[in-house]
Amino acid sequence: MSHISTVRYTGNLHNDLTHLQSGDTISTDAPTDNNGKGEAFSPTDLLATSLAACALTIMGMKADDLSVGLAGARAEVGKEMAANPRRVAKVTVDFYLNADLDERSRAVLEAAAHTCPVAKSLSADLVQEFVFHYE
């Protein structure tokens, strides 16, 4: 297995993450409810956001297969934490898609969202709630 990224702890509960193939970087901070300042995504924010990004990516692949446009689609992500042990208990993703999508396309895209690798990799104990809005 080859490495995909590096993570450097920079102090004060911050990390710098670098994607090795592209050189793209992001930072994390601990959340305000866990001793951080909330100055960047927390690691659990990234987990929740990765679910939405993965779902939209798989939906984009299906949209290409269907020859329908998905550009401009967006997702709003929420998460709920639990204690003992501290963990992400629920991720809610509201997807906003084009109202012009026909019923068949909507059904295919909605089903595809749930098949993304991140969704399939998370614990069965983590509730994944996907809500689709057409506007």
Automatic annotation (TrEMBL):
It comes from the Bacteria. InterPro entries: KH_dom-like_a/b, OsmC/Ohr_fam, OsmC/Ohrsf. Coiled coil: none annotated. Signal peptide: none annotated. Residues 18-35 have a biased composition (Polar residues). PANTHER family: OSMC-LIKE PROTEIN (PTHR39624:SF2), PROTEIN INVOLVED IN RIMO-MEDIATED BETA-METHYLTHIOLATION OF RIBOSOMAL PROTEIN S12 YCAO (PTHR39624). This is OsmC family peroxiredoxin. The lineage of its organism: Bacteria, Pseudomonadati, Pseudomonadota, Betaproteobacteria, Neisseriales.
